Please model this.
Amino acid sequence: MNRSDYTKTISLIKTYVAEEKDWYGDELSYDAAAKSSVLPVSAADTARADAERVLMKKSSSALEKLRKEICDCVRCPLGKTRINFVFGTGNPRARLMFVGEGPGFSEDHQGEPFIGRAGKMLTKIIEAMGMLRSDVYIANIVKCHPMKDASNPELHGNDRPPTPEEMAFCMPYLERQIECIKPVVICTLGTTASQGLLGVDTVIGKLRGNMVDYKKYKLMPTYHPAALLRNPALKRDLWEDMKQIKKILA
Model:
């Protein structure tokens, strides 16, 4: 373990102790440990693994509590026509979180985000970054399927972007998800998600490629995977955006 990794380990342990004071109290001085190299590598690794497990459990529990709290939501008309409430999926402690606009036909029927053709493209993007879907967290601005014809949820090609009003109802839920996960980077996919989180009306072609601050996080707007299916030439620009994200996560 080099000095940089050692320092990160101590930082993680200190975060863990700060959040879980009842477990350790003042029995250990991590400030002192951070300034010395006395702590054996094996002990540091064990402590780091223990801390990560506790933080993972804490984030997972917070997400599950939120899911149960909001899964029956009918605050807007989307909640009255959906088949499934699509909360989100992935690593509760993900350093990278993807946010799309809303569930489509496949997602509404199976209750999981990004599982159709665009979802398969997103999986390829994640794997090209050297990760798995299980390493990241994937969610949408709205949790229910926006349909052109809400009376026919079995109709294919019935998807539409959510309205500003629909996004406004659901945005607090997404913000609470983000706070549970605490990602390093949020990647918004497409115009709707990017405009919704950033509160702007700029088109994605002008937003993408510009890493910005969003509250306590870094946010990278980029093209929606569905856009790449329609126009493969966009893959080069999207990959440049992913390279910026990789640098932040390194």
